[in-house]
Design brief:
Helix content: 55-70%
Oligomer: single chain
Low-confidence stretches: none
Strand content: under 5%
Shape: elongated
Number of helices: 6
Structural class: mainly alpha
Amino acid sequence: MRPPFTALPQENGALLALYEGKADAAGFFAKSKAAWGGLAQTLAFLETHLGTDAASTFLGGNQVSLADLHAGAWLTRIGAVAGATELSGKQVAAKIDAEVGKAVAGPKVVAWLDALFVRASFKEVYADGLH
């Protein structure tokens, strides 16, 4: 395992070279596509760990936790990258499904996102749109 931050200048330089067209981007694109494919596993994990009733709406049960807030913000960002524009679990899921090329966001994930999206904190953070 490498020490933290020692390779960052090299990694940033490699990314800059891709943006400038000075490096072959095939490996970068392959890793990006693989990451989208791996998203299905993460959503399947969430789907199995979310409950089916009000007593288990969130990852830790009936109360929102830090895990929900982090995972929810992350998934909202993924949805925005995929083209979602509003705080809607259905829209975020549909855009992610379209990007992956198959249905990967289940009904419990959609309901969980909607439970997060009605929170004042999410409405405030995303008042100007998803980002």
